[in-house]
Amino acid sequence: MAHSHFNCGIKGARVAGKILLGICAAVVFALIFGFAVMYLWNWLMPGLFGLGVITYFQAFGLVVLAKILFGSFGHGHRYDRGEYKLKMKLHGKGEKGSDDAVPEEIRGNREEFESFWEKEGRNSFEEYMKRINGKD
Q1: Which residues contact 56 (CB under 8 A, 6 or more apart)?
Q2: How many whole angstroms from its chain centre is CA 40?
Q3: What is d(CA 85, CA 97) in angstroms, rounded to the nearest whole number?
Q4: What is the model's pTM?
Q5: CB–CB of 33/25 below 8 Å?
Q6: How confident is the model over 32-49, as pLDDT tens digits?
Q7: Count of CB atoms within 10 A of residue 96's CB?
Q8: Cα–Cα distance, 66 to 33 (Å, whole number)
Q9: Per residue, what are the HEC states of the chain?
Q10: Which of 19-33, 48-62, 93-107 has the lowest mean pLDDT?
Q11: Dihedral, CA atoms, 118, 122, 127, 132, nearest 10 degrees?
Q12: How far is it, in rounded angstroms, from Cα 3 to Cα 62?
């Protein structure tokens, strides 16, 4: 029994360490990013547009404002939900057993299936929806 409690303690310490490391990394990144924005602003904006120089906290505020106004940064691919789920299934990154839901002939030809879906899948689906809704 004592051995299993010891293992739980080690796992808990590892998780806590990873969380602490993540928080520290986020703080360091925010500091560096704030300084980068401040230096770029102070280098470019006064000379180009005649604007004043800014402090670190003003630069950090600009970053927060941009995040609020323009949303999240770093979301490169914008799939609709169906396409995203299909891609995850094809690459085996879905839920447990999700690969079972993909037929073997598709799993064996993933690249061809993805190429087909990108070229013809959406149009075929739209035509199918028109047929079943009686909109020819």
Answers
A1: 34, 35, 38
A2: 26
A3: 14
A4: 0.42
A5: no
A6: 888 999 999 999 999 999
A7: 6
A8: 13
A9: CHHHHHHHHHHHHHHHHHHHHHHHHHHHHHHHHHHHHHHHHHHHHHHHHCCCCCCHHHHHHHHHHHHHHHCCCCCCCCCCHHHHHHHHHHCCCCCCCHHHHCCHHHHCCHHHHHHHHHHHHHHHHHHHHHHHCCCC
A10: 93-107
A11: 130
A12: 52
End-to-end CA separation in angstroms for the chain = 70
Range name among 25-29, 93-97, 125-129, 132-136 with the lowest pLDDT average? 93-97
At 54-63, the pLDDT tens digits run: 999 999 888 8
Confidence (pLDDT) at 50: 94
